[in-house]
Each structure stands twice: as structure tokens, then as C-alpha cells.
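S2.1 Query sequence (Transporter)
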Amino acid sequence: MGGSECLTASKRRWAMLCILLGLGLSSLGSAIVNIALPNISHSFASSEAATVWVVNAYQLSATVCLLPIASLVESLGLKRVYASGLAVFVLASLGCALAPTLPVLVSARLVQGAGAAGISVAGIALVRTIYPQRLVSKGLALVALAVAIPGALGPTIAATILVVAKWPWLFLVNAPFGLAVPLFVAAAPPDVQVARPLDLIGISLNALAFGLFAIGIGTLGSGDGPVAMGEIVAGLICFSLFLRQQLQHSMPMLPFDLFRIPLFTLSVWTSICSYAAQILAYVSLPFFFETAMHLSAVETGFLVTPWPLMTAVTAPIAGRLTIRYPASVICSIGLALLAVGLLLMVFLPTTPAKWDVVWRLALCGIGFGLFQTPNNTAMMTAGPIGRSGAASGMNAAARYVGWSLGSALVSLIFGSGGDHGAVLCLAAGVGFALIGSATSSARRFR
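Output C-alpha cells follow.
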């Protein structure tokens, strides 16, 4: 998809600013809400397990939408997908802020997640249409910062907002950025569109498979075992039907050619495990701090910040290490450190000092930062360069699948774990981090 050479420097800056803005907002959308979950729970007089669906809905919707959007982006056009995704994200943010009940808030988050999927799928690919080939690396470096910085500052931003305002303002702050949509449409280069049939059967089976499975795990937390098992089994059946349908499709959404490469497949599984561990901790820690340690939302925000902050600091270092050492080794060490940090949180003293929490979460952040860049590099370079778009789509899909699985498990554990739900979530995170470390190590023998 060309068009970069005909862009003026001014238009390139405007278009790139809008892309960075959207990617930053979608990253912030994942990081900023966790801190406010206890406040939202109190506001609607809802249970912790029910409130967790404010996070689950966003992750689940994005996960369900990623593959269909990635498969249709050539026929719809990157420019149209990105602008539509950003517009949907901002409008859904207004819906979240104005939600009168928890079900309405969860519904708005579903729509917001769909918008985030459009931003994620089209955003990185658009960099290649905006910059000439010789400057693409510069654009991708800016993208990495746009994703990492909001993730690092999300808890602090949330804590700051909650000092002076109620939780709806966490969503209202997105509203002014909707003005970027017309700016982007005016500045971005024209799309090259390719005719591609809409695979309605595949899209439906994809949505049912991921949706029923995640909802079933969450339903287990409500104590309704038979219904939950029925949802999980139905989800697995839909997934098997989805795989069969995709294998027979002439233009499948799933990149089967890449999955035949062991390095790529193991990298995908490593990513799923690591992001499941991350979200198990991210969602449960605010409840742990505010319920068990009786801290305020502001104190919670600042205590959680060392994790994403150290991830942002460590990720570029890990990128340089990847040049000298195998990605499998660096990732394994990183995920082992993440497991150690989470385990230390499980055995946190009954009345810990703030520093006891800070250095443990900083260790988690260092471990996650060591994993992230090398694993992404391995995934993106495992296949031929002509399949980098499909690899990028699976990179995002693995991240959201891990988040959705972890979020659903949080709901399950909170529903059945009683007063120890947060600690059990951290213990589950230890398990996922160790599985990810072992999976990463297996890449050395491929």
C-alpha cells in the first residue's frame, strides 16, 4: 500500500500523531480502569466478580474482533478501519462515562473493545504507508513508545484523576481526542483496497468460540456450575468448527502457514501465558490493596506504577540484548523473574511497608520487560517478510487472548475464592509465568 512518498512532512506528522494518539488511548484503556474497579463496585453496589467484567468485556470484545478485522482490513482499507476504530472507541468512552448501571457500563466496554481492535490492527500497518521505506523504523520506534508510556502511566493517571473526580472521568478524558478522526482522514495517504469476500460463517464461529469459552469461565465464579460447563463445552465445539471451516476456506483468517513454524507457534503460546499472568495480577492487585490493606485508590495507583514503569525501562534494554543472546533465553529469564515477583507478593507480610510492595512489583516489571521485546521480535521474524502483517495480527491476538483468559479466571477465582481471591489470582499468575518460561525454553531446541 503506497502513498508515503507523496505525503508532505506536515501531513506525515499529523497522520502519525493521530496514529500514536489512537494506539496510546487503546493502551491506556486497558491500564487505567483497573485501579477504579473497587470504586465502580461500590458505586453500583455490585460484587467484585461482577465488576471484573468491566475489564473482561473490553478484552473479550477486542479478542473476538481482532481476527475478523485483520482479515478484512485489505478490502475495507487501513485508513477506514483505523478512523472508524478511533471514532467507535471515543463514542464508547462517552457511553461508559454516562452508564447508569453496571450492565450498561459493561455493554459500552464491549463496544470500546471493538474500537480498540480496529486501532490495534490498522495502527502499526499504517506506519508503513505513512513513512517511506527508509524511515519506517523511526515510525515503529514511536509506536513502541506510544504503547509503553500510557501503560506505564495508566495507574498514576487513574490515581490522579480519582483524587479530584469520580470514576466516570476516567472515560470522559478520551472525548476530546475524537477530534483527531477528521485530522487523520485529511492527512493519511489514500488506501489501496483489495476485494475480499466477507466470511460471515468464520466471523460468527470465531465470536462464539472465544465468547462462550470466556463467559463460561466467568460463570463458574457465580457458582452455577452446570451452566458454566455448558458454555465452556459449547465454546470448545465452536472453536473446533471454526478450525475446520478455516482449513477449508480459500482465504482463512488464521495464518496456518505460520503455525507450521515451531518457533512462531511456541512464541504465540509464550505470549498468551505471559499476558494471562500479567492481567491476573493487574486486575486483582487493586482489590488486594484496597480491601486487604485498606489503602486508598490514589495509594493503590502509585503502588501499582512500578510494574509498568520498569517494563517500559527494561524493554529497550531487552531489545539490545536480543542482538547478542537468543530470545528464548532472555524470555525464559524474564518470565522466571516475573514468577518470582508474583510469588513474593503472595507471601507479602501481613502489614507490609510500602517499599515491600514497590520492589516486588518492580521485579515483576523487569521480568515482563525482559520477555516482551525479544518474544515480539521472535514472533515477527519467524516467518517470511511477506507474512509480517499476519504475524502482527497474531501478535495482537495472542496478547488479547491472554488478557481475556486471565480476566475470566479472575472472575472465577473471586467468585469461588472468598476473602483470599486476590492472593489466589497472584498464585495463578505464578503458574502461568512458569509455563510461559518453560514454553520459551523449548524454542532453543527448534
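Residues 1-194 form a domain with the Growth Hormone; Chain: A; fold (CATH 1.20.1250.20). The chain has three domains: 1-194, 197-250, 257-446.
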